[in-house]
Amino acid sequence: MKIGKDPGGPHRMEPLWPTVADDSLRALAIRVIRLSAKLGEALHPLTRRHVAELLQSMNSYYSNLIEGHKTHPADIERALRSELAADPARRALQLESRAHVEVQRLLEKRLSEEPDLKICSAGFLSWIHSEFYGRMPEEFCRVQDRRGNQLPVEAGTLRDRELEVGEHLAPPARSLQGLLDRFGEAYEPSQLNEVDQLVAAGASHHRLTWIHPFLDGNGRVARLFSHAYLIRAGVDGSGLWAISRGLARRRQEYFSALRDADHPRRGDLDGRGNLSNEGLVSFVRFFLGIASDQIAFMSGLLELEGLERRIRGYLEVLSSSGELKAGAFTCFVKLWCAVRSPAERPRA
Q1: pLDDT one digit per residue (tens) for the chain, 348 residues
Q2: Which of 340, 129, 92 is nearest to 218 (CA)?
Q3: Which of 53, 157, 205, 341 has the fewest CB atoms within 10 Å, i.e. the most exposed one?
């Protein structure tokens, strides 16, 4: 008797890499690398660290917004100070947002302290899920199946049942370990060059959501994983931008791009794998475009040269009218030097 391939085996995830006939993906990746490098150099390291800490709350807000959970930024800040609302629904959203911020901080700490950490491994992905759901409110640790049964979400545990998410029938539970092993082999950033890491960041984001390894929380895990991947690739702008904001602002396009990449191969001109190469190419283009847009947005927000010119002009007007003491301009230059990066400090 001839035995065929396991219908839920790793081959079902192919192609793992998008194939294009030109250099368009490479060009997008190079643009992200260049923009990120410039953004990371914009601020003095001390100032940069404080801005990055503020952006952690923003990342939490947008990642949870993608899931349809909207928490006011002020409530997130209160949650980080353990000032929780009396209203149960509002309190649950606060705890969810705080969980995201805390796990992002833990993730960044591990990446800093463990240079050999395999971020594409099943162990690391389960760790993200475990840390996140270990902090979630009880009411967010249950999901309802198609029959209306309440199922507990076990922190860090791969699902043990079949799952259908919208139009996507997730691969069988028995195949998860094999799929995740193949995922880790293909996408581990330490074995890729700088440009390929960016392409892999987009491709791995989709393939992880396609595997859907957990009963719930797969989107949040995928976005935290992508955050880790972009840090490993050295394109996080020293913490000054995050992918979740861009994905949330184009939420429907994000979901549509994920669905398109879920599709089976569409004929002989659509690659040679089980899934659509065209769909994967489109998703990676979307992902890298979002990255580029978000870095450009933050660069504009922190466009210090323009801000410096406006402040200098304003102080000069005040000085000439006698409304400002003579030493104030020198004080401004000294203060400005404290927030600018050493390479970009202005001269008096």
Answers
A1: 333 445 558 889 999 999 999 999 999 999 999 999 988 877 778 778 888 888 899 999 999 999 999 999 999 999 999 999 999 999 999 999 999 999 999 999 999 999 999 999 999 999 999 999 999 999 999 988 778 788 999 999 999 998 887 778 889 999 999 999 999 999 999 999 999 999 999 999 999 999 999 999 999 999 999 999 999 999 998 888 999 999 999 999 999 999 999 999 998 888 888 999 999 999 999 999 999 999 999 888 877 556 566 666 666 776 676 666 666 656 655 555 555 555 444 444
A2: 129
A3: 53
> In terms of C-beta density within 10 A (0-12 exposed, 13-18 middle, 19 or more buried), how is residue 202 classed?
buried
CA distance linking residue 244 with residue 226, whole number of Å: 9
Distance (Å, whole) CA 46 – CA 126: 33
> Which structure tokens are listed for 203?
């491709």
Q: Output the furthest CA–CA distance in the chain (Å, rounded).
A: 97
Find the helix or strand (DSSP H, E) in which 334 lies.
Answer: helix 328-339
Relative to beta strand 150-152, strand 164-165 is unpaired
- Residue 175 carries which side chain, given as an amino acid letter? S
Q: And the tokens for 79?
A: 């949650």
Contact yes or no for 39/297 (Cβ under 8 A): no
Tokens 């949650």 correspond to 79
Q: Which structure tokens are listed for 155?
A: 């922190």
Q: Which residue has the tokens 């074995």?
A: 191
Per DSSP, the three-state class of 144 is strand
Q: Please state the CATH superfamily assignment of the domain spanning residues 10-302 in this structure.
A: Fido-like domain (1.10.3290.10)
Please give the Cα distance from 286 to 248 (Å, whole number).
Answer: 13
Q: Which residue in the block uniquely carries the two structure tokens 């979400």? A: 153
191: which residues sit within 8 A by CB, 6+ positions away? none
Assign 169 to helix, strand or coil.
Answer: strand
